[in-house]
Amino acid sequence: MGEAPREASSNLQAPETSPYDKRITGRTKPLSLKAKPEFHKELKKLATEEECLMIEVLEKALQCYEKHRKN
Fold first, then answer.
1. pLDDT by residue (tens digit) across 4-62?
2. Which stretches within the chain are classed as H helix?
3. Closest Cα to residue 19, out of 53, 44, 47?
4. What pLDDT is attached to residue 15?
5. Which residues contact 34 (CB under 8 A, 6 or more apart)?
6. Distance between CA 71 and CA 57 in Å, rounded?
7. How many CB atoms lie under 10 A from the CB of residue 18?
8. How far apart are CA 40 and CA 26, in angstroms?
């Protein structure tokens, strides 16, 4: 079977990358949510239309929400 690995793979230390274009996202904190299927579908649709990640749509939405809440 060969020699056992001495160290863990270096990809464990690699930065998070976008699944679409492999750019480094800088996101390291996992976020797990349960959503209604309709919400997930709409979020994914928006992200596809904007050519961005679903998390980026949520981040933009949070910025809008914070601005609206201050007014």
1. 767 666 655 666 665 666 666 778 888 999 999 999 999 999 999 999 999 999 999 99
2. 37-50, 54-70
3. 53
4. 60
5. none
6. 22
7. 14
8. 23
Q: Which two tokens stand for residue 43?
A: 């979020």
Q: Does residue 1 register a pLDDT over 80?
A: no
Give the separation between CA 53 and CA 24, rounded to whole angstroms.
Answer: 12
How many residues can be counted in the chain? Answer: 71
Dihedral sign from CA coordinates of 33, 17, 12, 2: positive
Closest alpha carbon to 17 in 28, 4, 6: 28
